[in-house]
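Our consortium's second objective concerns turning raw sequence data into structural hypotheses that experimental partners can test. To show how far this objective has progressed, the report includes one record in full. It was chosen at random from the queue rather than selected for favorable results. The single chain below, 309 residues long, was entered without modification.
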Amino acid sequence: MNKEMLYKALTPPSGLVDAVLDTDTYNEIDDQFALAYMIRSNDKINLKAIYAAPFFNSHSTSPADGMEKSYNEIYNILTLMKEEDLKKVVFRGSETYLPDEKTPVISESAKHLCELAMNYSAENPLYVIAIGAITNVASALLLKPEIADRIVLVWLGGHSFDWPNTKEFNMYQDVAGARVIFNSGAPVVQLPCMGVVSAFTVSGDDMRARLYGKNELCTYLTTHSEEEVSSYVKNGNAWSRVIWDVTAVAWLTGANGNNNRFMQYKLAPAPICEYDFTYSFDNTRQEIVYVYNIRRDELLNDLINKLTK
């Protein structure tokens, strides 16, 4: 991909575009917000597939268990939203992380992304919104490297370039996967977590006043969020939740001409994700979009308006 085509791919797209979502949906509450927001943004996004990503934390017993729980949670959200047709395009993902930078993990998701992306081109790319460990997408790029010129990858992963480390959940689970995608030649939009999209939060008061009781989905999102911070709720304290995964979807929903009304960004050489959880930099590397600021109130209003309609 030449520089002119790369820069065009890295411009927020206007109009309706085809996209897939790669999500570790059961990991915490923000994936559910992001999935619902993507579905309710059908004026901007034609959702072609949903991939379950692996994760391993207190909500799972292994990456495979996390992926399976995410797969089931996707179905749960689609049921709450009465989006039965979308269940036909939900795929299980990787059960492990990449063992190295050359070996893909074969899964339904990786194989489907390979097949689907081949229907697109640099002029008409498929947008891949990824909000979990990047294993599924990295595996697809290893299986079929030519899709790098047919997709635009929007990944919420890593921390800001000036954060002391890169030990962010999505990135540190699969550093090899992160290295693969930044070395693949694919156009990449990076939304760093701490120091950037960590600004995108919803408060308990917002949820009770503007979401709870509006519909089954909104009540579920509210009560599930309250369960995650039960000690604050029980004691009557103020609380908020980071729902930063929504910001990756907002790369598409906020497109406005050549800009994005929900965020500020710049071009920067792709970072090198080191195995010691730091970044290193080389100014000769292919440029990516690096998001450095989120307009929280504008995006939150759009999110709530769409979820409650």
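The partners drew two points from this record. The domain at 3-200+243-308 is CATH 3.90.245.10 (Inosine-uridine Nucleoside N-ribohydrolase; Chain A). The chain has one domain: 3-200+243-308. Both points have been shared with the crystallography group to help prioritize constructs.
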